[in-house]
Prior knowledge:
- Helix content is 75%, strand content 0%.
- It contains ten helices and no strands.
- The chain has helices at 13-41, 51-76, 89-111, 120-134, 138-168, 172-185, 190-210, 214-234, 239-243, 247-268.
- Helix 6 packs antiparallel against helix 7 (190-210) and helix 7 (190-210) packs antiparallel against helix 8 (214-234).
- It is globular and about 65 Å long.
Amino acid sequence: MENSRYPKFTFTWIGGLVLLAGLFIGTMAVSFFGSFWKIAFRENLELKDWFLMVTNAAGFLTAIAFFDFFIVRPSTGKKLNFNFSPTNFYTYLLIFPMMIGMMFISEFITSLIPTTGPFWGKYYEFFSQLMEQLTFEPVIMIIMTVIMAPIFEEIIFRGIIQKGLINKGVNPRRAIVYASIIFGLVHANPWQFVGAVLLGCVLGLVYYKTKSLLLPMLLHGFNNLCSSLLVTYTKSESFADAFKISEWVVLAVGIVLFSLFFYLFTVRNKVHYTEI
């Protein structure tokens, strides 16, 4: 690993602060530019569909750049770099059904979280209104959720946080869970938290086993594409609602799919990947 082209950095709370600082500065820079544009040209860029996309991209890019320049390069002497190599076709046949199974399981668990009541009802109503505001121009939504989010989020949560924890000596299983919990927390609501943690564990497992960020990016994009299509055509992120079946059926199918392909991927798949 010492001769690897990929830097062996570690992730600590300092690295977390650096990521947050980069995210804040990048986001604020775009916000200040929007304010300047509004004053100078009397046009509110925040009303443009693409403005939120640019703001998110700037925040993520600055966060990654900050971690590279302030953590990775000083400690390793190398620039931040990741393995994006494709793998054999057989592996794809295993990881996508496994991902679908976990998507079904997470949907069932999420459906158990209350959406009514004095506290949950108001929180869910606020969350629903927020999601409606974000569901704008379909092309922009697809670019943000299916392309940008998988790339940037996988670099940060799997490529930086999970890998950095493992490099630090944290047990790989714990590192996968820790990165997934952080991934869930940044979604800032209980309904997305469950799915983010469970799906994050699958993404983390795939990254740890294949050593390529390309695969979790593809899985992440696939998950977000399914959610986007469900929201666009059924106004709901529920497979049960889309197919008019019980959530228990969704759970049963999910358990079968995930269990079978998890076994095939982790036990029967004897291919071992390394970074060189």
